[in-house]
Amino acid sequence: MKWELVGAFHPTKLSVLVLTPGATQGIFNEALDVFREGMMERVLDYSGEHFQFEQVSIPIGPLQKPHPPYGTRRSAKSGTTYAAKNGFNFLTLGPPELVSQLACLYRQTWAEFSQAQQTFHDLDCPKIGAMRQIFIGETDQQALGTAEAAYQDWYQSITELWRKNGDTSFDDFFSWEACLASETILIGSPETVRDKIEKLVEQSGINYFVGSFAWGSLTFEESKESFERFVSQVMPALEMPVAV
Fold first, then answer.
1. Prediction pTM value
2. Which among 102, 79, 107 has a CA at the least distance from the CA of 6?
3. Residues in contact with 239: Cβ distance below 8 Å, sequence separation at least 6, in sequence order
4. pLDDT at residue 229 above 70?
5. CA triplet 28, 34, 37: central angle to 5 degrees?
6. Is pLDDT at 9 greater than 60 in this prediction?
7. Is the peptide bond before 66 cis (omega within 30 degrees of 0)?
8. 128 pLDDT band (50/70/90 cuts)?
9. Domains along the chain with CATH numbers
10. Cβ distance 99 to 200 under 8 Å?
11. In this predicted model, which residue has the larger pLDDT, 74 or 84?
12. What Cα–Cα distance (Å) separates residue 167 from each residue in 27, 63, 68, 138, 142?
């Protein structure tokens, strides 16, 4: 088990929560304190600016001690250094060039702070990874034909909040053509997808990879067959580095 910590920092998202960008980091830090204490103590007492708990019984504790490892998904330099300084496993999105830059920044920051007495440094070797939406077909042509319509449904969903607020700045960022070209989505035959992942690992040195196989309007059977091809024809060829 691991905790993944994701914050909402975009102004459009924050407006729905009636929050300002300046308030989010304090809330995030305090919520993290609550989670951490809740994992380590059987009775939670906490008094903060945003959260208060008094004598909350927690009869079941985690198997991992002192708590499950933390991970965070970030795509900016500030979030990357924050993750490394605090000893979080790290996952990012974006094209291979950005993954490489952020992975390098994470390693440099980790090396600088790994000897310091950081609150969350419980990892000997952190996970540094990338996430990709994946669809694997028998051939490139078949995979592209099936995935494009499903992706358009996902695209409408992921951009809905921005579009409702008159913000079109992410339309091109998430477009089918742009994401295919930047390899932030991997669509194709097992050989095509395997080659792109191997290239990403070699270029960035990541030691962790997350694939998303159920998205948009893909049916259960389509996602299942794609995942099975990944397990049987892609995974056996992949080797991840083990050191930071």
1. 0.81
2. 79
3. 201
4. yes
5. 140
6. no
7. yes
8. very high
9. 1-66 (no CATH), 69-244 (3.20.20.30)
10. yes
11. 84
12. 26, 44, 38, 38, 34
